[in-house]
């Protein structure tokens, strides 16, 4: 796994664009040390590269470039209604990184951003300052890996470990770190924290091979989860999104059996379940670039959100949940 991961990363970041304002920032130096052979290009604003018109998204996916920038303006955003709040009253998310090293056909990022290149906002101290300010007013449940996979990118920029260390010292802060990585090595030197939930997105191996390109196998993710549980990390399982495909019911039932043969349900904090759903505008942009089983499906639209037709969605959720409840008590299952 280590070799395949390094090979994946080696294909990217031949060029690194850096805003002049943050050339001397400590995080910038940490990142640049990882890529001594990359071509460095100074820029005034990351949008010059990331948001320019007529970009070739497919080519960028083959060889992503890295853009280092300073975040300005807002640092925290209210949790979107398309995402689970897990019962927390103050649900927010934050984005230190735009885009992901993986390439899932269904990922909303492909419709959200004009570029497949990765933007890293190096000024993490400003994010922490804003979070501290909010914590003076109320507790906070914060998702820090919605627009990327910070655990998968830890060997490029150490935001994953920095966030865990920071959250551990803030009693009213709970952070969720969502990931598909199987690279447990990044966790080995860290101490588990009551304030941190590691949330693994899991899919059947058939779905991974068909739609989740460049991601670790189901077996590899389950191995990482088992190690995390053994080392007393709080672990959430995310069966989200459920995807419709040929023989979906057989595929997902076999999947649930495999997951709970490996993972003890009582050791899991909770589980999220949801079918594929995406803002209408994001899907429209994805269709301009990608013609595949995900983008071609005749979804239903409701309040600018596209998802499966009602009867199909109900059937998928009913079948999946009835079987999931054979392993996990209803009180641990969050549905959207």
TrEMBL record:
Origin: domain of life: Bacteria
Alphabetized UniProt keyword annotations: Lyase
Pfam families, alphabetized: SPL
Entry-linked InterPro entries: rSAM_sf (IPR058240), SPL (IPR049539)
Molecular function GO labels: 4 iron, 4 sulfur cluster binding; DNA photolyase activity; S-adenosyl-L-methionine binding
Keyword Lyase recorded: yes
Gene Ontology CC annotations of this record: endospore-forming forespore
Gene3D superfamilies per record: 3.40.50.12110, 3.80.30.30
Name under which the protein is recorded: DNA repair photolyase-like protein
